[in-house]
Amino acid sequence: MCGIVGYIGPKPAAPLMVEGLSKLEYRGYDSAGIAILEDHQIEIIKRKGRLAELVSALEAQDLTGKVGIGHTRWATHGKPSHENAHPHYDCSKSFAVVHNGIIENYQEIKKKLIAEGHKFISETDTEVLAHLVEKHYKGDLLQTVHHVIGLIDGAYAMAVIAKDEPERIVCVRKDSPLVVGLGEGENFLASDIPAILKHTRKVFLLEDGEVATITKDVVEVYQKGEKIDKELFKVTWDAEAAEKGGYPHFMLKEIFEQPRALRATFKGRLNNGAVTLDEMRDIKGLDKINKVYFVACGTAYHAGLVGKDVVENLARIPAEADIASEFRYRDPIIDDKTLVVVISQSGETADTLAAMREAQNKGAQVLAVTNVVGSSVSREADLVIYTWAGPEIAVASTKAYLTQLAAMYLFGLFLAQERGILTPKQTSEITKALRELPGHVETVLEQAGKVERLAHEWAKRENAFFIGRGLDWAVAQEGSLKLKEISYIHAEAYAAGELKHGTLALITEGIPVVALATQGRIYDKTISNIKEVKARGAHVTGLVFEGVDISETVDEVIAIPNTIPLLAPILSVVPLQLLAYYAAIARDSDVDKPRNLAKSVTVE
Ligand code: M6R
């Protein structure tokens, strides 16, 4: 995710910008840049790629200015490129702007500004801010920023400098974090505390709608144009903890970020009881599609398993889920009526890319579901749905998976809606249930303590089972992978009805089993399978909807809030992620970087 830094004081700002941005690298980014103000001129240096590229570019410069703003960009509007990197100038290079978040009405603003003669260089939403400041500036940057925020919708943390006001930086936040750090004769600005922690522990945490003007000696904060007294916040934690937002591991942080990530995936896509997926507008022959393949690896493949059920259930189109490394070599039957959906958090997984190319060679349309703008998959696919989970750092995928599931529902519902399979009332009921999911995930997360206690028992075992039917089986596979991947406990996921055809032989006294039973239609069948493992001594944790009384059948119960059974995977996987995490902690594993694994698998 993007990062912001700013400095004003007696020291050269450029090295401080680079140092601050380096503390934000953990958030993920694809370009970086700084703007330095000196002698009534603003110099912007920016580069696509790693911070090291920017550092090399700066070596050739002699920037001694003592006012600066900097940014690391994680592409949203427009690919990762030099032009799209921040900071952005206005036409006259009188202002420079950095921004995190999304300006939702930027297209209409941009159109107007272009008609008025403004020249745009980038594809970003951010650049409209620089031009808006230019248009409305009447000699007071603070007043101008107050005016501009009245014209924009969306989420933003923004900082602006003006060549004619070299004594201050003006910044504002709404729905995107921004802090002001207070030093002695110098002041700082950052989207995240780690960026400034080396210099100060005294900060103002800006609230939504607050605008700050920062000089080297004074920081003033305004709300609705009125100056306010801000309470000082003293940072007590260390830099490493701060990067993880106070969580001990990125994985736990990412698990707890899931409600926010889901909201981002749904944002703007669930409107008036229907699905809006502008990304699908260029799909060809929507009514002729007669087969959907979901193709992916690992966790993303598990999202595809859910996608298959969702598409068959909602849109009534035959669907398959395939592992990319198998699909690419098995000469699948594909033609121009086939839609291949490749799912990849990174968008760089070698097998997924190869499978996608194979599908395109055979004439299929390819839709990519990915988290990374500008990734190979997103560039080569015919259509792209971004999941907007934000950067995922832990090797074990959690929030990316949940948002992939969300994308599966949006996509399945879109197909059903456009092909007239569901009535508007049915569609509206599902969209309502989807909207409730982020809140329900928050409720599930409240049970972390209970899952942690259970995990301590699991951590003592070397084998475990996850069983379920239908969508529960798909989630069981993800739960099993998560446990193996980070705790190194051997786990099997089994279709509950298939156990007695062999695997039941492995069920012995005390072996831990999670039995998922959220699918009402086959609930009784699953209960029979639970009894089969209980009779052989398994220690069973039942995962059911609230209000379902399963306590007589199992040893432990984890309940998830009620929703439409089709949507249950988004909730039922969360306790399994926590179970894997806490079991791994109890076994002293390197949770964020499990042995032998890499975050992005770019080799076959
Ligand atoms: O970046 P991708 O989604 O294409 O990655 C696919 C798999 O490598 C990935 O999901 C992997 O299985 C995760 N480490 C599982 O947590």
Defining traits:
604 residues, Glutamine Phosphoribosylpyrophosphate, subunit 1, domain 1, Rossmann fold, seven-stranded antiparallel sheet, binds 5-amino-5-deoxy-1-O-phosphono-D-mannitol
The rough form would be described as globular
- The number of distinct β-strands equals 27
- Rg result: 26 Å
Supply the CATH superfamily name of the largest domain: Aminohydrolase, N-terminal nucleophile (Ntn) domain
Structural class, please? alpha/beta
CATH architecture of the largest domain: 4-Layer Sandwich
Bound molecules: 5-amino-5-deoxy-1-O-phosphono-D-mannitol
Q: Identify the strand order in the major beta sheet.
A: 3-2-4-1-10-9-11-15
Roughly what percent helix?
Answer: 25-40%
Largest sheet: 8 strands, antiparallel
CATH class of the largest domain: Alpha Beta
What percentage of the residues does DSSP assign to strands (E)? 15-25%
- What value does the average pLDDT take? 94
Number of domains: 3
First and last CA, distance: 28 Å
- According to CATH, the fold-level topology of the largest domain is Glutamine Phosphoribosylpyrophosphate, subunit 1, domain 1
Q: Tally the helices: what do you get?
A: 18
Low-confidence stretches: none
Explain this structure.
- This protein is α/β, with parallel strands linked by helices and 604 residues long.
- The chain is built from 18 helices and 27 strands.
- The chain has three domains: 241 residues, Aminohydrolase, N-terminal nucleophile (Ntn) domain (Glutamine Phosphoribosylpyrophosphate, subunit 1, domain 1); 190 residues, Rossmann fold; 140 residues, Rossmann fold (3-Layer(aba) Sandwich), CATH 3.40.50.
- 35% of the residues lie in helices and 24% in strands.
- An eight-stranded antiparallel beta sheet has the order 3-2-4-1-10-9-11-15, covered by helices on one side. It has a seven-stranded antiparallel beta sheet with strand order 5-6-7-8-12-13-14. It has a five-stranded parallel beta sheet with strand order 19-18-20-21-22, with helices on both faces.
- The longest helix is centred in the C-terminal third of the chain and has 22 residues.
- The mean pLDDT is 94.
- The site of 5-amino-5-deoxy-1-O-phosphono-D-mannitol has 15 residues, from helix 9.
